[in-house]
Request: fold
Amino acid sequence: MQVIHPRCAAVDLGKDLLVAGARLQEGPSIQRTCRSFGTTQREIEELRIWLGSLGITHVVMEATGSYWRAVWRVLEESFELTLANPAQVKNLPGRKSDVNDATWMADLHAHGLIRGSFVPPARITALRELTRTRKQLVREVGRHTLRIQKTLDIAGLKLTGPISEILGSTGRRIIRALIAGKTDPEKLADLADPHLKASRRDLVEALQGKLTPQQRRLLKIHLQLVENLESSIAQLDSDITKAVKPFRGLVDRLKAVPGLSEISTSALVAEIGTDMGPFKTAGHLVSWARLCPRMAESAGKILSTRSLKSSAWVKTLLIQAAWCAIRTRKSYFRAQYFRLKSRRGAKKAIGAVAAALLTTVYHMIRTGQPYSDLGSDHFDRTDRERVVRRSLIRLQQLGYRVTLQRAVA
Reply:
């Protein structure tokens, strides 16, 4: 097998230990050497110096948790790095050790058998940290909101019936009054917004329960945590706006795509970057995001076409955007969803819409063109043309000479 990288190394990563395995080849002679390092900044710098002294040009490491990031940051200026998917570089059973893993990865990398994972540049990575943190805080707000709702339900206060958003303006005023010790349903109902759809009678009926002192303290704790999280989210929004400035033109163009807002567009750019070079085609990007059917076939029988599991970032973001996109009337994505839903079900239909969204974004980034919707009648037009084309070919095969002329309506 041809050797692609004659002087390469692999780093097996751990929380407190790094094992580096170097593979040096001069003609038919192969020399292997391994050395262990700690994970502090000084010891990672020693790793860089040691690899440089051996004349290493290419280094590969596994994408193990977040341990690889500190090592990558130190080595990226001195070597050509490759980040490997751990599932693709597993060693043979019974040979599992740090040294064997590093030696095995080095052998694979020397022959060009490791396909590198996508690692965004520094500015995209910084934006990704902000958008992912924001999403985590939004999830925490949702969790504390559910705990507030649970506490109210236990106390017999059924606010979720007449009030759709428990932490809306009306809900917060009532919750603060409950924390302050107010119990009169009539006075609590006076705090409702005049535009509340629920009747006053229903609201008074829902406020007949009673909180214990302990439950009031719990409500106060959860509400304070929610407000602190919302303050942090507002700060993150400001930081994201600043971090997006270098990509403002792209973000504004992508916001024209149905289903994508300012926040979701910024998060999507943070995940896939602004350069589609690492993805040869839109299909490669869709596959990377785990939005395409899997290939699982044996003995000529298809075992499964379910999409692979993915991290809770890109795939979740696009599925949420797809649900928003199908609400846009007279759009291609809405037509695609209802066309597939009747045959394949809602879950697979929304997955296809998410893949179409990502394909659209791919081409917009790659070509620099603005968004242009294909229209809700796209499938009607393409299906009609397909029927005409197939019929024409069949008639020609039967020996007929056909002249097409559109009928006047």
Q: What stands out?
A: The two ends are 67 Å apart (CA to CA). The beta strands are 7-13, 18-26, 29-37, 58-62, 80-84, 296-298, 301-304. DSSP finds 15 helices and seven strands in the chain. The first helix runs from residue 41 to 53.
